[in-house]
Request: fold
Amino acid sequence: MPEQLVGTVEELGPGSVRGIGDWAVLNVNGERYAVSRRCRHLRADLANGKIDDDGCLVCPWHQSRYDPTTGRMVVGPQAGFEKVPGLDTAFIQLTKLWPLRRAEVVERDGKVYLRN
Ligand code: FES
Reply:
């Protein structure tokens, strides 16, 4: 399984989000995850997102929230889109069938690697 260097353990500390290739790698309270980096809504780069208090990855454009343990959207697009009837439910249902892809993240010798 190919590995890609993501960065050092220090660079990928708790609360960090970093893009590498097609992936966003994040550290939620010491647990690292990798998810495909294009939002299912309008393809914003999730590597520019933030981690919220619930450990979800928040899209930088319209604040959809993703559970990195499953790749599923748990809150749909905001910034006006939340007023569109059914949109939230539709995206949440969609990502049950079509979640963000996930990859394995491993730590070795002070460095963090992505395996996919
Ligand atoms: S592009 Fe991510 S919520 Fe709109």
Summary: The chain has a mean pLDDT of 94. The first strand starts at residue 3 and ends at 8. The radius of gyration is 14 Å. Residues 39, 41-42, 44, 59, 61-62, 64, 77 surround FE2/S2 (inorganic) cluster (CB under 6 Å).
